[in-house]
Write a structure and sequence with these properties.
This protein is of the alpha/beta class. It has a single domain (20-294), classed as TIM Barrel (Alpha-Beta Barrel). It has helices at residues 3-13, 36-49, 71-80, 97-109, 137-147, 167-179, 193-205, 222-232, 238-244, 251-271, 286-294, and strands at 25-30, 57-59, 86-91, 114-118, 151-156, 184-187, 212-216, 276-280. Strand 4 (114-118), helix 5 and strand 5 form a beta-alpha-beta unit. Helix 5 (137-147) packs parallel to helix 6 (167-179). The protein is globular. It starts with a helix and ends in a 13-residue tail after the last helix.
Length: 307
Amino acid sequence: MNPTSKARFADRRFAWLSEPLPPITISFELFPAKTPGAATKLWEAVDKLRALDPAYISVTCGAGGNPAEGTEPLVADLRERAGLQAVPHLTCASAPKSAVERIAEGYRASGFRHLVALRGDRPKESPDDGAERYRFAAELVARLHALGGFEISVAAYPEPHPEALSAAADLDNLKRKIDAGASRAITQYCFDTETILRFRDRMSAAGITAPLAVGILPVHDFGQVRRFSDRCGASVPSWLGALFEGLEDEPAQQNLVGACVAAEQARRLSVEGIPELHFYTVNRAEPTIAACRLLGLRAAPARAAAA
């Protein structure tokens, strides 16, 4: 192949990178750090991710009986220290109604107006304290809506939740959450883009018109992703496993492959009319930043964090 032919081939091969995309809104998810070392790495990631100007950063809840363990201080720090719109997750299965409502009212008093309302994992053993608990996320959404002053996001599952009786029952549950007062659905990650698009269409057919933010997981450790996916009911396609085969001891290459897969999925979703993308960062910046760069999203010059 002569040099001219090579150049033309390269132009055709990478032409998709220059195709303009519809406007995209991005957001990120983080989880509270459990050790000082993990906290240092978390804030290194935050300092890089905030340059992409996300619409918000959501923060998951810690495990155990407190539905805001580690979440409250981190969302406060993200807002005060990094100047970011922080959105706390609030779960309800493991704590009495009174405790959950007290946390919600505390968030409202502190100026947090957007919550992600989730059922969360049920306790392995039934509590014997006699306290009332919310059984389902829809019940929590209804209560938050009644309290007033909140924008409420809820979880959605392109692949049905592991506890759902069927895909139809799972969609009915999402509709209950929206009808109870939720204003947005954020999906679990799903590597099969066609499944996501079919789910979007099923939402529309069911009369669910709330905005849909699609969750994207840039893979940085395929073994870890496979183990987590087994627990949460997300499928791992064989084609994805083939891409990471032989890279078990090559973290840098896994990051590169993961970023490319995430960017390709994000680009397809955007072209298909999905304007909101929610990146599950796993507290790592590089794969998400690389994926966003492939989408044409450039980081702004770094800002100094508040002391």
